[in-house]
Amino acid sequence: MRRFAIGLVLLALSIPALAQNQDVQGPVVSLLLPPGIASETVQIEYFMIGPFGGYGGFIKAEKNRTTYDLHASVDSRLAKNVKVIAYLPGCRIVTLNIAVSRTTPEQDLQCQPLATVPLRGQILPAAMAQYQAIEVEISYLAVWAHEFYDISDGPLTTIRIGTAVPDKNGQFQFELPDLKRQEDLGLGAFKFIVRQPKTGNIIGLLDADPTASNAYGLEVRASYDPLVRFTPATM
Questions:
Q1: pLDDT tens-digit profile of 95-106?
Q2: What CATH number has the domain bearing residue 98?
Q3: Is pTM beyond 0.85 here?
């Protein structure tokens, strides 16, 4: 199961999240950002259904935006329904289920503040953090998104949370979003990817201590042990 999960993660990280809808005809669903949220930090993914079947994609983040527009049609065929997953840093994950019409009203991406959970980790062996400069990218895998979109397969929805730089002993600290408080979410996990800072190239994945993990990565918890150990993932 762990090998299967790692394979899905690598697939999600090695290809672009589904291509953006290029059909600019038809109705537009406008997503209104709350005040104080930097628009370039927002991550928005969607899945729509209609006479074309199913179509998923993402909205490219840009600076100085107050709204993001989603064109709800494919090949000039109107979508019937659009589901949205939006991540705004510091806020609960937003999920929307929108019935589409020619006059679909503007949709608010409301920010409900979310606390953080401190994580102190250590990469073992520590030599992994010594032989070259590395950074640890932390992502959230929304395994529950398949059920939300009503699909059975495809790349897992991946939300990039941030990065941490380990010290010479392989230790790092990071404030994880307290997604345990979102009881409406289903199965999810945090993944840890080791990258080269300058190139962004993936060096490998990290497995958290099995006592703190599920099949997809570090479990979403309200608190963690004083030190969580990570080792290179086995493929």
A1: 999 999 878 889
A2: 2.60.40
A3: yes
